[in-house]
C-alpha cells in the first residue's frame, strides 16, 4: 500500500506534541464515533503513562446503537463519552473535571487525534469562544495553541496520522469520515474500498461508476458535451458522505479489535 496524504505540518506537529506532552497531565483523544478504530491511526503510544480520556465525537452522524457499543467497549479500560456539536458544554466539562487530576487548581489538557475529527470545535465549545480555527477540510490547525477556559487549560494540536504503511481498509475509513482529503487520494483501490464499505451500510445496488454517473447527473455536474464530470462528482460525493449528509452510518463495528495501549 502506498503512502497517503502526509503534509509537512503533521510531522512537525508530532515533534511539538512530544515536547509539550511534559507540560500536560491529561490527554483528550478525539475519535470519530463512526470509525473509532481507524481514527486511532497515529502513534498513540507517545501518550503512554499519561491520563488518557477518549471522546467519540460527531455522534450526531454516527449509528447510535454502534456508538453505544463502542462506549461500553472502550469504557472498560478508559474514561470515554460520546459527544457532538449539538450537545451541552456541561456534558464535556463535567466529564473532563471528573476524570482529570487537578494540579494547582488547574487542569492542563492536550487535545489530540487524526485530522478533522472536531478537536478545535470541542475546544471552542468548552471555552465558549471561537478561539481555535475550525474548518470542513482536514489540516486546518497547523500548530499547537493554548486556550484558557477558567481552570481548564486546553492545548489544541493539529491532526496527526501515521506517515506510512497505510492499510487499505483504514485509509478507506479515514476517507469516509473526512480525515484524508479526497482530492489527494490517487490510489483508486482506496476509493473503491471506501465505496464498498459505504455500500454495505446503505444498501446501494449500483457499482461505483454507475453511482457516480447517477449522482453527477442528479446534481448537474456535467462537462461540455453533457458527460458527467467524474472528478467533481467523486469529490463532492465523498465530502457529503464525510459530513453525514447522505445518512448516519458507522464503519467500524469489530469491537473485539479494541486493544489500545495495553
Ligand atoms: N456533524 C458534526 N460535525 C462536526 C462536529 N464537530 C465538528 N464538526 C465539523 O467537522 C469539521 C472539522 O472540525 P474541526 O474542529 O476543525 O476539526 P479538527 O479536528 O480541529 O481538524 P484539524 O485541525 O484539521 O485536524 C468542521 O466542519 C466542523 O464543523 C460534530 O459533532 N458533528
Ligand atoms: Mg483543528
Distinct ligands, ions and cofactors found in the model: guanosine-5'-triphosphate, magnesium ion
CATH-scheme architecture of the largest domain: 3-Layer(aba) Sandwich
Sheet with most strands = 6 strands, mixed
Helix share, percent: 25-40%
Query: How many individual domains?
Result: 2
CATH class of the largest domain: Alpha Beta
Return the average pLDDT rounded to an integer: 94
Beta strands, count: 6
By CATH, the superfamily of the largest domain comes out as P-loop containing nucleotide triphosphate hydrolases
Strand line-up across the major sheet: 3-2-1-4-6-5
Structural class: alpha/beta
Explain this structure to me?
This protein is of the alpha/beta class and 262 residues long. The chain folds into 2 domains: 8-163, P-loop containing nucleotide triphosphate hydrolases (Rossmann fold); 168-242, Conserved Hypothetical Protein Ylqf, Chain: A, domain 2 (Orthogonal Bundle), CATH 1.10.1580. The chain is built from 8 helices and 6 strands. The chain has helices at 8-20, 64-75, 89-99, 119-127, 168-176, 188-202, 208-219, 230-242; strands at residues 26-32, 51-57, 80-82, 107-112, 145-149, 152-156. Strands 3-2-1-4-6-5 form a 6-stranded mixed β-sheet, sandwiched between helices. Strand 5 and strand 6 (152-156) form a beta hairpin. Helix 5 (168-176) packs across helix 6 (188-202) and helix 7 crosses helix 8 (230-242). The structure holds guanosine-5'-triphosphate (GTP) and magnesium ion. Magnesium ion (MG) is lined by residues 119-120, 140-141.
Amino acid at each position: 500500500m502506498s503512502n497517503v496524504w502526509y503534509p509537512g505540518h503533521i510531522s512537525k506537529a508530532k515533534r511539538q506534541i512530544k515536547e509539550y506532552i511534559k507540560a500536560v497531565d491529561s490527554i483528550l483523544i478525539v475519535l470519530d464515533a463512526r470509525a473509532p478504530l481507524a481514527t486511532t491511526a497515529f502513534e498513540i503510544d507517545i501518550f503512554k503513562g499519561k491520563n488518557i480520556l477518549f471522546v467519540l465525537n460527531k455522534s450526531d452522524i454516527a449509528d447510535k446503537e454502534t456508538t453505544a457499543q463502542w462506549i461500553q467497549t472502550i469504557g472498560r479500560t478508559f474514561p470515554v463519552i460520546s459527544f457532538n456539536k449539538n450537545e451541552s458544554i456541561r456534558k464535556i466539562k463535567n466529564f473532563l473535571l471528573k476524570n482529570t487530576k487537578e494540579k494547582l487548581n488547574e487542569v492542563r489538557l492536550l487535545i489530540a487525534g487524526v485530522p478533522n475529527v472536531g478537536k478545535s470545535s470541542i475546544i471552542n465549545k468548552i471555552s465558549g469562544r471561537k478561539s481555535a480555527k475550525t474548518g470542513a477540510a482536514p489540516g486546518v490547525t497547523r500548530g499547537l495553541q493554548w486556550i484558557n477556559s477558567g481552570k481548564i487549560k486546553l492545548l489544541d494540536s493539529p491532526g496527526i496520522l501515521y506517515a506510512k504503511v497505510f492499510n487499505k481498509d483504514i485509509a478507506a475509513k479515514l476517507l469516509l469520515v473526512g480525515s484524508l482529503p479526497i482530492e489527494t487520494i490517487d490510489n483508486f483501490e482506496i476509493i473503491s474500498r471506501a465505496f464498498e464499505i459505504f455500500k454495505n451500510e446503505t444498501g446501494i445496488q449500483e457499482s461505483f461508476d454507475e453511482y457516480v454517473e447517477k449522482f453527477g447527473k442528479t446534481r448537474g455536474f456535467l462537462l461540455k458535451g453533457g458527460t458527467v464530470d467524474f472528478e467533481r462528482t467523486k469529490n463532492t460525493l465523498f465530502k457529503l458522505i464525510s459530513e453525514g449528509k447522505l445518512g448516519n452510518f458507522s464503519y467500524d463495528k469489530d469491537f473485539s479489535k479494541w486493544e489500545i495501549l495495553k
